Amino acid sequence: MSAPNKQYDPVEVAALSAEAVAAARDEALAAIAAARSLDDLKAVRVAHAGDRSALALANAEIGALPPQARAEAGKRVGAARRDVAQALSQRQEVLESERDRRVLEEERVDVTLPWDRAPRGAEHPVTMTSQRLTDVFVAMGYEVAEGPEVEAEWYNFDALNFPPDHPAREMQDTFFVAGPEASARSGIVLRTHTSPVQIRAMLTRPLPLYVVSPGKCFRSDALDATHSPVFHQIECLAVDEGLTMADLRGAINAFVEAMFGEGLRTRLRPDFFPFTEPSADVSMECHVCRGASTRPGGAPCRVCRSQGWIEIAGCGMVNPKVLVACGIDPDRYSGFAFGLGIERSLMIRHGVTDIRDTLEGDVRFSRAFGMEI
Amino acid sequence: MRVPLSWLREYAALGSDVAAGEVARRLTAAGLEVETVEAVGQDISGVVVGLVTAIEELSGFRKPVRYCQVDDGSGTPRGVICGAANFSVGDRVPLALPGAVLPGGFEITARKTYGHVSDGMICSARELAIGDDHTGILVLAPDAQLGADFVEYAGLADHVLDIAVTPDRGYALSIRGVARELATAYGVPYRDPAEQDLPADVAAESADVWQARIEDASACDRFVLREVRGIDPAAPTPLRMRIRLARAGMRSVSLAVDVTNYLMLELGQPLHAFDGSALAGPVVVRRARAGERLETLDHVVRDLDPDDILITDSSGPLSLAGTMGGVTSEVSETSTHLVIEAAHFSARGTARMSRRHRLSSEASYRFERGVDRELPLRASARAASMLAALGGGTIVPGCSHAQAEVPTVTITMAVDYPDRVAGRVYGQATVARRLREVGCAVVEPDLGAAEAGEAGGSGTEAAPGPGERATGRFARHEHGRHNRGKLRFTVTPPSWRPDLVNPSDLAEEVIRLEGYENIPVRSPRAAAGQGLTSRQRLRRTIGRSLAESGYVEVLSQPFVSAADIDRLGAPEGDPRRRAVRVANPLSEDEPLLRTTLLPGLLRVLARNIGRGSADVGLYEIGPVFRLRSSGPGVAPILRVDRGPAVAEITELNGALPDQPLRVAAVLAGEREQSGWWGEGRAAGWQDAIQAARDVLAISRAPSRITEGTPAPWHPGRCAALFVTVDGDEVLAGHAGELHPRVVSEFKVPARTCAMELDLSAILAAASLAGPEQAPRISAYPVATLDVALVVAESVAAADVEAALIDGARAADGAAGLLEQVRLFDVYVGEQVGAGRKSLAYTLRLRADDRTLTTEETEAVRDAAVAEATRRVGAVLRGAA
Q1: Which residue range(s) make up the domain with B811?
Q2: Is B87 part of any domain?
Q3: Which of A114, A154, A325 is closest, CB to CB, to B643?
Q4: pLDDT, tens digit, for every residue of B73-89?
Q5: Residues in chain B closer than 8 A to A166 (CB atoms)
Q6: Residue to test with chain B: of A130, A149, A165, most B Cβ within 10 A
């Protein structure tokens, strides 16, 4: 038989009673729940989970119990302490996230404020249009050919089958470059079109030849809303065996669809350019109304002036005389060419109404188009 | 060319139901672009042929006024007030009755004026919109039917087509030519007006007619004179003729002038009438002699050039051939004896003369574009007969006819040539028919073969046709490798189509008449292109990069004045003074082409600032133009009947000025704007120089920066930039702040900054750079060391940096430990002493294969500093 534990102290045992442990736990839980801030919670932690807290003290008493009572008391106190610790950590989490929310709330700003410290730049819409037009041709396998803006008359006129003194030459309102003596002609002009680049390309590149040439041109037109002494053209030239007007039409259609919209029809009408024969002007179906303005009851169209068609380019089969002047056998090779005004293209596609806007360099004009056109 | 539709209908048997708009569409589709269709005479009503039965001259008014009694056909005269006095009792006049509507919606009512009720209005030509004559009322022919509706009587209701005739189609500058196209377009019969009302033998010559001679056959190859005597100089021009002239845009002058103009419009043959009483001796066509002068009808006395083509008599020059008559032989209001000239002048000669004298007339316009050589005999015959009939004169039978032989043009064309141009098969019969519609004589190779060709057969072997051996410039077609068609047409173009000389000209005729809309579409086959060249890509990238860093692109006009170069302060002999001069500038103030982009950019900058855009950065990429050191060149005009030789091309290109591509930028105002965030930052020299450095960095051309001073820069705030091409360092350009004087000359804000670089040189340098080789990216830790170096204030930071880099590289050998040198502070002040500055750099060192030790990094640093000390006298700050 075992003897009673002599050290058994009824007073001390009271602290480990189920009621006392539960009371301490409940008190701790209530305090935790009542903590309004992380500082509050810190005080609660010291008071109810610290070394001097009721449950910590109770825990220390366990060793004083008779061995048979220790397990049960230990389980009881341990559970209570776990409850308190868990409550503390949950509360901590809640309060921390409340604090974070408050801090982030305080850091809120007006995200719609402008931050345009650096001024905005822009490429010129003529440049962007030129590049875009060029890229359409480059995608079809054309290469970009270039030539000088101050050009020999032979390239600009003679080789392109503008005979001397022919009215076609006079129609071009040419700027002539002064020669060494004031009266004598220099044989040099400011190029009136990009077509001399055709001649340069035919003289320097191997055949077959597919080139596109964008560039600046000059005509001695006084500046007004629709005329400018300085303007830009782009033209393409293909010289190969067996090219026909059917190929020309195919190239024009591909180009118009890429630039102005799928499915737009084109129309050729006879025209005259010395360097092409036959020659034609090219109109495309109005990309805005697609002809609706010409039908009964159709709303008027500002872009095509309710004509349904917009003239965009000149074209034709390379005149065999031009091939001859470039040393190309016209019995073996044929070619086609077509060209258009870049400003005109800009006017059609973007509603520019005054060509002077493209010349004056007002930053408001160019900035409006941004970096892509 | 303004063409009344009624006139066309006279020769093209068009159905009466065909609308003017449709006519316009068809003509345009055939190559005669109708720009406008104007309905005329359709807005007039209530005007009748009236008879003046009494005239009462009213007095007491400020101008003469008449109160007339005019019978409107009802037998009861109406009282009408009229201010004109060019008519008398018994004259027939257009009378607008009350309720009548005149052009422009002008309504006539009975109203009281000058003390009488004016019960209608007697009309002038201008009030009826059939001329600009408002000096008197329009007196009608005595046979005009009293009371007839005037619109019907005069045939006023019409449409006028305005046709833009291209310069190759001279024949279409006539009713004759347009009517032919119209008849072809509609497939209806055509009457050639040149074949109407001719004498039995149009070419009959007579010694009784004023004699004529051609002295220079290169100036004129046919010259015809006819004479009409006893003309009543006051004979009126018939109303319908006047109306047609007015509709075509010509003024009615006198019967003689009106008839010649009328026939020119109808046939396309310019005619000239001389006053026969003013002529002396035979009429001779010749070139002008030195010192000759002529006063033309516009009362300008012209000094003649030996190249001018003249009509002369024994007294000297009478007129500028085919361009304008002279005053001495002008037909006047007393001329009763007319000598009519119809000729075929050289197109080129007329063009040159017209250009030389800055004198363009209806006649020269037509001669330049080609007139039918077969017209002079016919047109002059019609003129004589019309003048005799309308002016009561007598024709001197026959004509004077001088001519020079002109070779006939025949063209040999493969039957399938139009097919090969268009990309579809037309067939021999169609081609021949279309060419005949144009007026060509066509000899077909073989009728049997023609049918086979029409059926689409090819390779038909047929005996050579009669035209096979015809000579022609394109006879080489017979040997063309791609000449699939073995059959050939021999085509003789009509006399009115001097523009048809090659097979391609004929092909165009066939294709346009068959309709451009019937040309098939073949999808493009991709060509084997290589895309943009690296130079083209680089140029784009540089532009885009400048735009992305806040600069706005400008395409400024290239015209400048010598003063612009002066304003830049360019010294004598500066290459920017080697400007190309335009012989015919738009503005005499700006006759030069730019030699630098800056004046244009500064002008645009000032414009933007003037328009309220204060913070502006602009850039431009484009060529400038500089005379070669040899001065202005003369480019030869090479032949065009074969390809040029290499030497010819070299000579041609060598005559052109230098045209290097340049890039420039200007900026003023704030580079970083002020805003709610606080103060901004003014644009400065640093920005301009950085823009230049960015361009060089993008190009990857090896470059160097140093201090520069030339105009137009601020001498202390200008950088010179260099690139290396083929081992040679060449100047790429300058950047910095502009000189204060330049700033004020160009009226741009103080401290405006700029840069300008020779992009051609940079692109050349860049093209040698080759593909960039990738750096090795080490994952080992970086070692960072800061050094502050004290140098004299005049030492360039770029030189210090270069010394540090070279020193470090020399120390670490091939290891390449130095990753970056970065200047992070510049200090000037007491602590470093007067005339000195402290530059603080961070050196970042890293090895590929290990963590660097302190000893290693310090050794590199010390070597770098030592090199800076050696080169620029740098002293480690704190060590002094």
Answers
A1: 783-876
A2: yes
A3: A325
A4: 888 888 999 888 889 89
A5: 167, 348, 351, 368
A6: A165
B18 and B114: one domain? no
Read off the pLDDT band of A6 (50, 70, 90): low
Is the distance from CB of B377 to CB of B342 less than 8 angstroms? yes
Task: Tell me if chain A has a CB within 8 Å of the CB of B651.
Answer: no
Query: Which amino acid does the sequence have at B545?
Result: S
Strand (E) or helix (H) holding A193:
none
Give whole-number Cα distances, B484 to B294, B439, B479, B487, B777, in Å. Answer: 58, 27, 10, 9, 65
A118 domain residue, yes or no: no
Residue B722 lies in a domain: yes
The secondary structure element, H or E, covering residue A182 is none
Tokens representing B331 are: 């037909």
A214 and A343 assigned to the same domain:
yes
Q: How many beta carbons lie within 10 A of that of residue B752, not counting itself?
A: 23
Backbone angles phi, psi at B832, to 5 degrees: -110, -5
Please name the member of B483, B551, B581 whose beta carbon is closest to the beta carbon of A121: B551
Tell me, yes or no, whether B199 lies in a domain. Answer: no
Which residues of chain B are within 8 Å of residue A334 when distances are taken between CB atoms? 420-421
Of A220, A241, A250, the CB nearest to B523: A250
Render pLDDT for B411-456 as a digit per residue (tens, 0 to 9): 999 999 999 999 999 999 999 999 999 999 999 986 554 444 444 3
Overall average pLDDT of the B45-66 stretch: 89
Residue A5 lies in a domain: no
Does residue B879 register a pLDDT over 70?
A: no
List CB contacts of B144: < 8 A, sequence separation 6 or more.
B49, B92, B153
Structural domain contains residue B552 = yes
The answer on B621 and B728 residing in a single domain is yes
Same-domain check for residues A130 and A102: no
| Pair (B317, B440) in one structural domain | no
The answer to whether B488 contacts chain A (CB < 8 Å) is no
Q: How many domains does chain A have?
A: 2
* pLDDT band, very low/low/confident/very high, at B465 (cuts 50, 70, 90): very low
* Minimum-distance CB partner of B521 among A163, A203, A246: A246
Q: What is the pLDDT of residue B484?
A: 47
Per residue in A283-298, pLDDT (tens digit) is: 999 988 888 888 888 8
Of A106, A133, A154, the domain-final residue? A106
User: Both ends of chain A: CA-CA distance in Å?
Assistant: 105
Put simply, the chain B residues between 42 and 81 with a CB less than 8 A from any chain A CB are none
| Residue A120 in domain | no
- For residue A205, pLDDT over 50 is answered with yes
Tokens found for residue B460: 């038909």
* Composition of chain A by helix, strand, coil, percent to 5: 45, 20, 35
Residues B694 and B637 in one domain: yes
Question: How many domains does one find in chain B?
Answer: 6
Nearest chain A residue (CA) to B677: A115
Size of interface A-B (CB pairs under 8 A): 328
What pLDDT does A12 receive? 52
Instruction: Read off the CATH number of the domain in which B259 is found.
Output: 3.50.40.10
Q: How far apart are alpha carbons B123 and B679 in whole angstroms?
A: 77
For residues A205 and A314, membership in a common domain is answered with yes
Please indicate, yes or no, whether residues A226 and A91 belong to a single structural domain of this protein: no
In this predicted structure, the answer to whether residue B459 has a pLDDT above a threshold of 90 is no
Out of B517, B549, B569, pick the residue that ends a domain.
Answer: B517
- Sign of torsion, CA B739 B741 B742 B747? positive
Q: Which residues of B touch A186 (CB under 8 A)?
A: 583, 632-635, 655
Instruction: State the complex-level ipTM.
Output: 0.87
Q: Which two tokens stand for residue A5?
A: 């534990």
Which chain A residues touch B546 with a CB distance below 8 Å? Answer: 121
In a domain, A2, yes or no: no
Residue A224's domain spans which residues? 125-369
Same domain assignment for residues A159 and A273: yes
Q: Which of B30, B167, B555 sits opposite A124 (nearest CB)?
A: B555
pLDDT in tens, B593-639: 999 999 999 999 999 999 999 999 999 999 999 999 888 999 999 99
**Which residues of chain B neighbour A268 with C-beta distances below 8 Å?**
516-517, 519
Chain B environment of A366 (Cβ under 8 Å)? 552-554
pLDDT score of B743 more than 90: yes
